[in-house]
Design goal:
Shape: globular
Number of helices: 0
CATH superfamily: Hexapeptide repeat proteins
CATH architecture: 3 Solenoid
Strand content: 35-45%
Low-confidence stretches: none
Number of strands: 21
Largest sheet: 8 strands, mixed
Order of helices and strands: EEEEEEEEEEEEEEEEEEEEE
Oligomer: single chain
Strand order of the largest sheet: 2-5-8-11-14-16-17-18
Helix content: under 10%
Mean pLDDT: 94
Structural class: mainly beta
CATH topology: UDP N-Acetylglucosamine Acyltransferase, domain 1
Radius of gyration: 16 Å
CATH class: Mainly Beta
Length: 167
């Protein structure tokens, strides 16, 4: 739609709607049958799988206008949203997180978090290159993880359930 902003080098499939006020960053891939409703912001290098769903109202009713109640959804750099997943509005999906196919995401997702299920739950962590680093739970309070494919190093803090990239 006219007031949407779309970055460079995007790949947008068939039957995709990008509503007024949406922001799509650079190098974003939006597969077939995805609707980005007002309030959705996709940072750079996001992958939206086929037929995944965003919402923008918590309590929709056909006969009640809720345009003044739209909630924003922020998808941070490098996130992957699997085919047929549903993302409830008003949440933040962290950098390089990975949403499993068919999942229903009702809460914020941490950076690098791997979530799946209905409702989606944190099950592990992913590397920036898309390889699973490990599953939860992890026994040690702080541990270092190195991707077996790209060699990037991460530190996992079990007390806070946070993974950080070691630059």
């Amino acid at each position: 739609m006219g007031k949407a902003k779309i970055g460079r080098n995007c790949n947008i499939g068939q039957n995709v709607v990008i509503s007024d006020g949406c922001i799509v960053g650079n190098n974003v891939k939006i597969q077939n049958n995805v609707s980005l409703y007002t309030g959705v912001c996709l940072e750079d290098e996001i992958f939206c799988g086929p037929s995944m769903v965003f919402t923008n109202v918590i309590n929709p009713r056909s006969h009640v206008s809720r345009r003044s109640e739209y909630k924003s959804t922020q998808v941070k750099r490098g996130a992957t949203l699997g085919a047929n997943c549903t993302v409830v509005c008003g949440i933040i999906l962290g950098r390089y997180c990975f949403i499993g196919a068919g999942s229903v995401v009702t809460k914020d997702v941490v950076d690098y978090g791997l979530v799946y299920g209905n409702p989606a739950k944190l099950r592990g962590f992913m590397c920036e290159c898309g390889i699973k680093l490990f599953d939860l739970p992890v026994n040690s309070s702080v541990s270092r993880q190195i991707c077996k494919v790209c060699g990037k190093a991460y530190t996992y803090d079990n007390r806070q359930n946070i993974l950080t990239f070691n630059e």
